[in-house]
Amino acid sequence: MKYEKAQNILPDGIIKIIQKYTDGGYIYIPRKNENKKSWGENTETKRYLKARDKEIFNKYSSGVIVKILSKQYFLTESSIRRIIRNQRNYD
Questions:
Q1: Cβ contacts of residue 41 below 8 Å, gap of 6+?
Q2: Distance from CA of residue 68 to its chain's centroid?
Q3: Which domain of life is it from (predicted)?
Q4: How many degrees, rounded to 5, is the angle at CA 11 between CA 6 and CA 15?
Q5: Quick one: DSSP state of residue 34?
Q6: Dihedral of the CA atoms 88, 44, 32, 23 (nearest 10)?
Q7: Distance CA 91, CA 88 (A)
Q8: Rounded to two decimals, what is the model's pTM?
Q9: CA-to-CA dists, residue 5 to 9, 17, 26, 35, 90, angstroms
Q10: Each residue of 19-66: pLDDT tens digit?
Q11: DSSP 8-state assignment for residue 48
């Protein structure tokens, strides 16, 4: 998301109305519902985390203990347990 100057994209009348509510402040204008994207849709993050979680589950299934996985992936033991629990539900 990048900032745009209001005077470059909005008519003067709308700017004056907005200035009644916030003079010089920052406001966020949300996307229309039909234009919203789900989390991770624009990046590889979602795919990366899915692959990582599957890898964690496979290692756990092969006998690697939670404490070791926690250190390998720099996650808390409770996060590792949550990932394992979620992966069991997918299979």
A1: none
A2: 26
A3: Bacteria
A4: 55
A5: G
A6: 120
A7: 5
A8: 0.58
A9: 7, 16, 11, 22, 46
A10: 999 988 888 888 888 887 777 677 788 889 999 999 999 999 999 999
A11: H
